[in-house]
Protein: 4-hydroxy-tetrahydrodipicolinate synthase
Organism: Geobacillus jurassicus
Amino acid sequence: MAYREAKERLRGSIAPVVTPFDEEGNVDFAALTALIDWHIESGTHGISVTGTSGEPSSLTLEERKQVMETAKQAVAGRVPFVPGTGSTNHAETIELTKFAQEIGADAAMVIVPYYNRPSQQALYKHFKAVAEAVDIPIIVYNIPGRTAVNLEVKTLARLAEDCPNIIGVKESNKDFEHVNRVLWHCGRDFLLFSGIELLCYPMLAIGGAGSISATANVVPHKVAELHDAWFAGDVKRAQDLHFELMELNDVLFIETNPGPVKAALGMMGKITPKLRLPLDLPSEEHQQQIRRTLVKYGLLAEAAPQQMK
């Protein structure tokens, strides 16, 4: 996908699909394929895997490649495919990003390395090296709450200027002034995706390209509809959906993502509700709150709850 074409196609709700596990903790590739089919049938505009919601740090390097390849085959060109290829290790990030290119991904999403807390100059050198190692478009992923370092606007602008295949950013940054300045300094045609659920609609209002929202795992049709309404000029409908989704957004982050999302999908019968340690399902109290919210949204019938372990 050429960079100009990528900027035109990579818009709307790009769902960061969870990585399903079976009862033994093995990757459930059949469930992953079924989830992707459900997303696309529900109107999702793009598919991502092995991002934060996909528990990449709990997967081996080979498992990440297998998940990416399975997802690419499941997508089958129906919508853009944007796997997460970043890690805390520079060489692994390049290896995974090259693999994404090899299997025909439309773009790669590369997270700010977590735990290391690099300087801004080190981040510049890291992302520039990754971008220069491949030809596919790169979407930088800035999530300071997870990485303990914020990719500053000036650093991102340098990368956008020096690396033509760095075409956008997923901003999981609650600082709305920051994301406004991203478009100011990087250009209004730079793709800005929201990774903060309550900022998905506000970012569209300033010229954002869409969202990569964990909530799309549970209500892909609603998150896609919000974007469809906005791009069709139906501002009122988009605003209504923004507020309609707020309670669900909150409960899906009642504990660390993707625990609540996987609990919800388990209740809905979409996956086995399993995470790999050190992550785990939410507490029983929080699971009951999630269940009540799903019932309220019509996603679950009122039935006798079964405790997940």
User: Anything to note?
Assistant: The CA atoms of residues 70 and 111 lie 21 Å apart. Strands lie at 12-16, 46-48, 108-111, 138-142, 166-171, 191-194, 210-211.
